């Protein structure tokens, strides 16, 4: 076969592939980072190939236009640098603007000065020769390209495994493209060797795009699957045809042009039969290479079910599902559990959510495939089967978590009921002897009588706290101004100034008596911890929150809460002060939660201890 025809054919293929890829990238993958600069880069490669073709096969006017297209090459390096910036998510506007300005300046220079001459070379009627000064724009273009590859190299150590795979693919494609185009300079360098390597250029754009999108778009894998299958078929067919022709020549057949019709028909039929026989196995082999895990077995399904059913939380179920299906398909996948469908980012995955049932039907869990366009039917079926198992696992986990929460609440209520009965009995049995002790101490010396009275009051306070914590919480919510609530509680503690930072118009929707009890317990705790300290301070501030709630803080500059007490601070019989009952904060939490709010130990600059309460505001 004429090598020049192969050369021209490779330019046609390169132009068609590059421009086709550019159009597909622009239309099908706009959400991928840096795709538009990559599409422009493919346009530049296609124009370069078509320009070469015009110089070689066109008349004088077409050849001149072809040279113009070849001279647009400097912009390709800028497009590639732009793509690398976007690929690495580095927004360097000034540097990119400078690169575009430099590229446009070089482009105008070579176009205005009409760089390059067309002259016969080897068997080419017209071939491109660079002038001596052409090395100047060549050095600039090379520097921009090297800059882009150095950025990729610098990003390699800190990149994730998937990102590293893409960087390696870009480097490999770059080496392929540079090596393939190197012999294009033979004529300009005075080397009279045919530019064989240029024939390999059609694979450059394919390798680059496939390497970048391999892990993000399944449709890329689909086309790779088809391309590899047909390449294998083509290679086998050519080898078989050569073998048959060689055998035919040795057995006395005339040259192919003089072969009888039945012999040509026999040869064609044999080749077609071989293709039909090999098409299925080769397609399945390549599919197994590009789309591993497309087939399911009973053992795989059982293993998936066991893995998914072993999750004890939503986050754990997401992680198990993503790891299991990703390992089976050998491709990173994302799994999202939740009601709101996530915004598509081009990554294939699964979205499992509680879907509303039809009229008269209860809601049910279902799974949708995200970004699976272009996947083979086998891979899609794998995703659907796994999605059904994931939906079933999510339904079971939802039921288990609801049951666990219900059981926890039931046990808590049963515990409170039991504790309430015990507290009532203890209160009755203790208050009688306490009254007798109080009356018997009347004739004691004043100091002894004062000590006895203090201990009796402490015991009575413990009994009252037990009854409050274990008793039924009944609420009568009303409009309560935060400032008024703080003033009423502060009136019971005249010995301590309480600072207030709240809008006078800010109101809560709570039971006033329970509100005073909540705030009184917290301020009482703070005063106990401040006793004997210099410059004691207590601050109460409040601010409105989203959703109609009010954030209330009670802070003091006391010693703070020891780290070992913080995790169980709101549990019964946990105290941070001597002489405390350990029920004050437990009562606060129970009353706050009865209002539909929450309480926690927070932080605030300048204060050693700060309790944060979320309570309902005015509806």
Secondary structure blueprint with pairings:
Elements: H1 3-28, H2 35-57, H3 60-70, H4 74-87, H5 93-112, E1 117-121, E2 124-129, H6 135-155, H7 161-182, H8 202-213, H9 218-250, H10 261-290, H11 298-309, H12 314-329, E3 334-337, E4 349-355, E5 364-370, H13 377-440, H14 446-470, E6 478-481, H15 482-491, E7 498-501, E8 507-510, H16 512-530, E9 538-544, E10 549-556, H17 584-594, E11 598-604, E12 607-616
Parallel strand pairs: 3-4, 7-9
Antiparallel strand pairs: 1-2, 4-5, 6-8, 9-10, 10-12, 11-12
Low-confidence stretches: none
Average predicted confidence as pLDDT: 80
CATH homologous superfamily of the largest domain, by name? Rhodopsin 7-helix transmembrane proteins
Give the CATH class of the largest domain: Mainly Alpha
Order of helices and strands: HHHHHEEHHHHHHHEEEHHEHEEHEEHEE
Task: Please name the CATH topology of the largest domain.
Answer: Rhopdopsin 7-helix transmembrane proteins
CATH architecture of the largest domain: Up-down Bundle
Distance between the termini: 86 Å
| Radius of gyration over C-alpha positions, nearest whole angstrom | 40 Å
DSSP helix fraction? 55-70%
Q: Largest beta sheet, briefly?
A: 5 strands, mixed
Strand order of the largest sheet: 7-9-10-12-11
Find the count of extended strands (DSSP E, 2+ residues). Answer: 12
Structural class, from secondary structure content? alpha+beta
What is the global morphology? elongated
Keywords: Kinase, Membrane, Phosphoprotein, Transferase, Transmembrane, Transmembrane helix
Protein name: histidine kinase
Enzyme class: transferase
EC number: 2.7.13.3
């Amino acid at each position: 076969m004429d090598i020049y025809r192969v050369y021209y054919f490779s330019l046609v293929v390169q132009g068609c592939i590059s421009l086709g890829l550019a159009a597909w990238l622009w239309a099908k993958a706009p959400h991928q980072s840096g795709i538009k600069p990559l599409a422009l880069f493919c346009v530049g490669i296609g124009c370069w190939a078509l320009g070469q073709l015009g110089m070689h096969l066109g008349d004088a006017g077409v050849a001149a236009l072809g040279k113009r297209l070849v001279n647009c090459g400097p912009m390709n390096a800028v497009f590639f640098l732009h793509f690398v910036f976007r690929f690495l998510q580095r927004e360097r506007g000034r540097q990119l603007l400078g690169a575009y300005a430099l590229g446009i300046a070089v482009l105008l220079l070579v176009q205005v000065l009409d760089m390059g001459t067309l002259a016969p070379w080897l068997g080419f009627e017209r071939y491109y020769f660079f002038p001596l000064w052409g090395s100047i724009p060549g050095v600039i273009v090379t520097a921009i390209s090297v800059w882009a590859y150095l950025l990729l190299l610098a990003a390699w150590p800190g990149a994730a495994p998937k990102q590293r795979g893409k960087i390696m693919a870009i480097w490999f494609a770059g080496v392929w493209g540079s090596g393939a185009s190197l012999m294009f300079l033979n004529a300009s360098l005075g080397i009279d060797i045919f530019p064989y390597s240029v024939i390999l250029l059609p694979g450059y754009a394919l390798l680059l795009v496939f390497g970048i999108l391999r892990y993000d778009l399944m449709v890329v894998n689909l086309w790779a699957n088809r391309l590899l299958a047909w390449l294998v078929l083509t290679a086998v067919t050519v080898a078989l045809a050569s073998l048959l022709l060689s055998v035919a020549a040795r057995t006395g057949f005339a040259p192919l042009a003089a072969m009888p019709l039945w012999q040509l028909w026999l040869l064609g039929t044999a080749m077609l039969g071989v293709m039909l026989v090999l098409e299925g196995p080769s397609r399945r082999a390549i599919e197994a290479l590009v789309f591993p895990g497309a087939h399911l077995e009973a053992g795989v399904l059982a293993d998936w079910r066991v893995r998914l059913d072993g999750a004890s939380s939503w986050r754990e179920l997401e992680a198990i599902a993503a790891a299991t299906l990703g390992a089976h398909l050998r491709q990173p996948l994302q799994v999202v559990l939740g009601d709101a469908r996530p915004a598509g980012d081009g990554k294939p995955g699964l979205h499992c959510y509680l879907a509303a049932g039809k009229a008269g039907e209860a809601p049910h869990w279902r799974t949708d495939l995200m970004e699976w366009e272009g996947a083979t039917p086998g891979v899609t079926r794998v995703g659907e089967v796994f999605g059904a198992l994931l939906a079933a696992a999510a339904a079971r986990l939802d039921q288990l978590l609801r049951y666990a929460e219900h059981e926890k609440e039931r046990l808590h209520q049963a515990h409170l009921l039991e504790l309430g009965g015990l507290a009532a009995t203890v209160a009755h049995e203790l208050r009688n002897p306490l009254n007798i002790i109080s009356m018997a101490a009347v004739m004691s010396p004043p100091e002894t009588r004062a000590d006895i009275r203090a201990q009796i009051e402490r015991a009575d306070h413990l009994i009252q706290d037990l009854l409050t914590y274990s008793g039924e919480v009944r609420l009568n919510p009303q409009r309560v101004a935060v400032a008024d609530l703080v003033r009423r509680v502060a009136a019971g503690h005249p010995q301590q100034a309480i600072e207030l930072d709240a809008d006078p118009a800010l109101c809560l929707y709570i039971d006033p008596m329970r509100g005073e009890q909540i705030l009184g317990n917290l301020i009482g705790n703070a005063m106990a911890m401040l006793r004997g300290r210099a410059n004691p301070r207590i601050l109460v501030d409040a601010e409105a929150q989203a959703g109609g709630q009010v954030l209330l803080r009670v802070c003091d500059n006391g010693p703070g809460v020891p780290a070992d007490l913080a995790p169980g601070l709101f549990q019964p019989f946990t105290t941070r002060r001597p002489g405390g009952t350990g029920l004050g904060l437990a009562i606060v939490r129970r009353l706050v939660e009865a209002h539909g709010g929450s309480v926690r130990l927070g932080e605030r600059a300048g204060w050693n201890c700060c309790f944060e309460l979320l309570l309902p505001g005015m509806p």
